[in-house]
């Protein structure tokens, strides 16, 4: 798939912008604070209905603007359709083929994107919440079923936490109502666990040879889905649900005292091992970066495997963070295969011989101008 056109109205520092892209590599050149990352963010918003930089949609609306609109034309092997996101003070609307989608879960997945920014290099050494977000965002694009169960899980989790917190203050607990919440949460949690175990295993299968190649055969990458309680990937959904219910029963008093749910997918993590050593704890910065790069490149292949289409790749000022070897591996992997958007202040540090016929755009003060090809 690729994004053929992008139109912005009232988005951040863009009053108006209309851009037509290459199917291969699109480079946005410009000094810092001119709007390069805003372009990347707008493509991400078009795909995911939300920003990767802020949870407050109002920040995306330009100064003195009533609303912001991001629209684009997506082309796939056998299809072509418009997408549109409208953000206002009242909320947001998502349109697919000009039809408003009442549920965002029915919109997400029509444009698949993988974002690789400098902060993604901290995917390995960052907090568990960063890796959980990584799982949810990537899996949600590939599977509407996962996204549905994630939304349901988060909704019930919010209800259960609110109930525990409320009754911690009042000192009263309706056991029947809590049992209903437990059953519902455990059922959705079991669905997420089963799909996450499968996803991490498949991601490892793609990431292992990539990591070995980057490290010239010196390193072997393995991954482990780390649940907040003792559970294995061999268990079926029925058993996973029983395991969750046991945790709620066993730690009922502790959860009641703390007013929150202490066990489940919202507390889980992924562990990475290089040559059987935990790379998060004992790995060098180079090993951690190689692991992060391997994961991103593996995502591209896994997404193609699961959806039948290669995703759009967003490289936001990340090439300058990679040494020549890792940069070469990245560019060779995506060459003539994945539509890529790349931001940089200069092409001086970029291996230009690996950029095949890039379409270059100069960005200055919220204006985009294409260089003649």
Please give a structural write-up.
The longest helix has 40 residues, at 175-214. With 373 residues, the protein is of the alpha/beta class. Strand 12 (312-316), helix 9 (324-334) and strand 13 (340-344) form a beta-alpha-beta unit. The mean pLDDT is 91. It folds into two domains: 1-112 and 313-373, P-loop containing nucleotide triphosphate hydrolases (Rossmann fold); 124-308, Glutathione S-transferase Yfyf (Class Pi), Chain A, domain 2. It has a six-stranded antiparallel beta sheet, with helices on one face. Strands 8-12-13-3-14-15 form a six-stranded mixed beta sheet, with helices on both faces. Helix content is 41%, strand content 24%.
What's the mean pLDDT score? 91
- Main β sheet profile: 6 strands, antiparallel
Query: What is the name of the CATH topology of the largest domain?
Result: Glutathione S-transferase Yfyf (Class Pi), Chain A, domain 2
Tell me the series of helices and strands, N- to C-terminal.
Answer: EEEHEEEEEHHHEHHEEHHEHEEE
Could you name the ranges where pLDDT drops below 50 across 5 or more consecutive residues?
none
Total domains: 2
Counting copies of identical and different chains, the oligomeric state is single chain
Rounded to the nearest angstrom, the distance between the terminal CA atoms is 23 Å
CATH architecture of the largest domain: Up-down Bundle
Q: Beta-sheet strand percentage?
A: 15-25%
Number of helical regions: 9
CATH class of the largest domain: Mainly Alpha
Number of strands: 15
| Fourth-tier CATH superfamily name of the largest domain | RecF/RecN/SMC, N-terminal domain
InterPro entries: DNA-binding_RecF (IPR001238), DNA-binding_RecF_CS (IPR018078), P-loop_NTPase (IPR027417), RecF/RecN/SMC_N (IPR003395), RecF_2 (IPR042174)
Family: Belongs to the RecF family.
Domain RecF/RecN/SMC N-terminal: 2-346
Function: The RecF protein is involved in DNA metabolism; it is required for DNA replication and normal SOS inducibility. RecF binds preferentially to single-stranded, linear DNA. It also seems to bind ATP.
């Amino acid at each position: 798939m690729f994004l053929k056109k992008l139109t912005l109205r009232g988005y951040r520092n863009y009053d108006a912008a209309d851009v037509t892209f290459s199917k291969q590599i699109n480079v946005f050149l410009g000094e810092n604070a001119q709007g390069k990352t805003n372009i990347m963010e707008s493509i991400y918003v078009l795909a995911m209905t939300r920003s990767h930089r802020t949870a407050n949609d109002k920040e995306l609306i330009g100064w003195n603007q009533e609303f912001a609109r991001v629209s684009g034309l997506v082309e796939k092997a056998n299809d072509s359709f418009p997408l549109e996101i409208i953000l206002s003070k009242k909320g947001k609307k998502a349109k697919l083929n000009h039809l408003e989608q009442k549920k965002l879960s029915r919109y997400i997945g029509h444009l698949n994107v993988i974002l690789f920014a400098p902060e993604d290099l901290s995917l390995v050494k960052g907090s568990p919440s960063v890796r959980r977000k990584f799982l949810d965002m990537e899996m949600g694009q590939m599977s509407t079923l996962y996204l549905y169960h994630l939304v349901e899980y988060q909704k019930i989790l919010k209800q259960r936490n609110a109930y525990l917190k409320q009754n911690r203050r009042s000192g009263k607990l309706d056991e029947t109502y809590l049992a209903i919440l437990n059953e519902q949460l455990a059922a959705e949690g079991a669905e997420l666990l089963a799909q996450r175990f499968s996803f991490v295993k498949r991601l490892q299968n793609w990431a292992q040879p990539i990591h070995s190649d980057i490290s010239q055969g010196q390193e072997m990458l393995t991954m482990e889905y780390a649940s907040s309680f003792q559970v294995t990937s061999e268990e079926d959904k029925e058993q996973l649900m029983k395991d969750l219910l046991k945790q709620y029963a066993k730690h009922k008093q502790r959860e009641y005292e703390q007013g929150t749910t202490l066990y489940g997918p919202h507390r889980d993590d992924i562990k990475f091992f290089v040559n059987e050593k935990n790379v998060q704890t004992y790995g060098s910065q180079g090993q951690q970066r190689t692991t992060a790069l391997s994961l991103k490149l593996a995502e591209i292949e896994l997404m193609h495997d699961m959806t039948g289409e290669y995703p759009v790749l967003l490289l936001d000022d990340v090439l300058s963070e990679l040494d020549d070897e890792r940069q070469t591996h990245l560019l060779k992997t995506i060459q003539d295969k994945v539509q890529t958007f790349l931001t940089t202040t200069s092409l001086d540090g970029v291996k230009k011989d690996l950029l095949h016929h890039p379409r270059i755009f100069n960005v200055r003060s919220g204006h985009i101008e294409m260089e003649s090809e």
